[in-house]
Amino acid sequence: MTTTETGRSLDSRPSAHGADRWTRDFVPIVLVGLGLALVPLQFQASGSMMTVVTSGMLFAAYGIGFNIIFGSTGQLFLCTGALAGIGGFGSAILSERLDVPLILSIMIAGALAAIVGGLLSWIAVSRSLDTIFTGIVTLAFSLSYESFILGKGDLTGGENGLRVEQGRDTILDRQVAPYYVFLALVLLYLVMYRVIQRSHLGWAFRALRDDEVAAELAGVDVTRYRVYAGIIGSGMLGIAGAVFAHNRGFIGPTTYAFGNVDVRVLVMLAFGGIGSLLGPILGAVVFTTLDELLDGQAQLREVFYGVVTVALFLAFRRGMIPSLGDWWNRLRSSRRGRT
Amino acid sequence: MNLTDLTAVVLDGFVLGLQFGILGVGLTLVYGLGGIVNLAHGQMAVLAAIIIARLIDGGTQTALALLIGVTAVGILGLVLDLTLMQPVYREPGEGRVLLGLLLMLGVGFIIDGILEWRYPIEALTLRVSGSPIRILDVPMRRGSIIASAAIIGIGAALALFFRYTTFGRATRSVIQDEQGARLCGVNPALVRTVVFALSGVLAGVVAVTRAMTTPVDSTAGVSLTVFALIVAVVGGLGSVSGAFLAGILLGIVNTVSAFYIGSYVSTIILLVVAAITIVVRPSGLLGVKS
Lengths: 339, 290
What we know:
Oligomer: heterodimer
Strand order of the largest sheet of chain B: 1-4
Distance between the termini of chain B: 44 Å
Number of helices of chain A: 15
Strand content of chain A: under 5%
Helix content of chain B: over 70%
Order of helices and strands of chain B: HHHHHEEEHHHHEHHH
Strand order of the largest sheet of chain A: 1-3
Largest sheet of chain B: 2 strands, antiparallel
Radius of gyration of chain B: 19 Å
Number of domains of chain A: 1
Largest sheet of chain A: 2 strands, antiparallel
Shape of chain B: globular
Number of strands of chain A: 3
Distance between the termini of chain A: 18 Å
Number of strands of chain B: 4
Radius of gyration of chain A: 20 Å
CATH topology of chain B: ABC transporter involved in vitamin B12 uptake, BtuC
Number of helices of chain B: 12
Structural class of chain B: mainly alpha
Order of helices and strands of chain A: HHHHHHHEEHHHHEHHHH
């Protein structure tokens, strides 16, 4: 049975036992959830450590959203931060200026990000841009977003940033609770990822990523499914960004900047394994830990980041989760061979 | 709107555009040959700038310092190709692009990190003395003129090199069809190595020419890389003349919109123009349809 989550392997075997399959699909998510739920036991006393692990969860959420767009359908969106920023600034402005209730403003901002992401996706697909070109167009969008945030100061606070009062006196303002809010979001995203993977959407995603022409010939509407992935993933990014804005209480031009979000998310996901369910989680956990270990040498952090990136990609070409999966499969098959 | 203003702005845009162009050329060549998006290109340029600045501070003659700085990043390009890039060249298909991109991203982090750690406030400024020269009734600074002349000279030399020398033709043949080139007796590995080194030298040239008009500081790497990427893609990946054309177009768009509209909108306009060009002509201005 293919337990590796490369996504490349078309799991074509009909499952005999629905319950068995259900277990195989969702038990990893439950286990990860339980494991991550224990993290605050260690750090709950320290406010700064809780901020660190909470932002780790935020990046896991970003990673899953980006994974749906890039991992599932191969569209290199270099605007993770910008889409999260649309969610963050959108929700902040809606709730602060227009007195929209908190939950509603997060939802509207998420929908806004989803629409923008869907549009970008539609442009890229309808002009059949390949990976690099999609990357450049979305990168241009990212940089325009940053210029807009800086330039439109009367709306976004410009360089000074924006204070987000909505979210005070809610659970988002506590020391430990926000971690669980983000963990819940991450688990929700994981379940969505899995459900999509097992639905007709997932079949189409795999088909079009493995061989676009063959998928098109087989009757898969490539444009439609790519745009779906763009919409879903961007919506996830927007909502995560919006929740973060209300949790942090302050957002500025660097909060969702390309250099702070996109590069990290890409490296984390590539490390964990692009197109794998748990890749974003593993990447977020490892790089958050790494960041914390390097905290003493803040100036050297970027150098270490670079060295680690280079070393990891030389050693684990496809990411850790697929490599570990291969290793596990080999181990199992060799054991089976012996008996 | 008066005409002299417009001429001045367009000339300024032309000067900036030439710098964009030479920035894009280094990136476009490496991508065209090996499918590697050199995300450390801007950082290599900044590295050259800081080496030169340190040498000049230490009392080295300017000309010698320039030579050492430019050669140093050329050698860095050579070394990168012979070491880190080897596993990338062995990777097939889309995996190659992604692996190359991520490895060079890592290299970019390393260079950027070291520079910001050791020399956070270092910057290279090359002052060219002398009174402004009038061109089309517009007084132009000597630094801008010398920088532009140098870039035009180097661009022309590159064009001649690729058109008329055996090695240049071999390079173009590998860009067009690696398999075919190999069958004709061209060694793609050698071509890639030499061109990667050449791309490093061009990054050094970017540092020198840019320092004649604006200071190049140790944090400029990322934005230089981003502009190189945009210029290379708009011009058509693998096309030298395309990169120059795109550079000049974007340079003029940038200064004209900055002058008539305002600074932050001009960046957005620049990026929108770039995005529209890519969307309308995915193969770039002068790119070959693959």
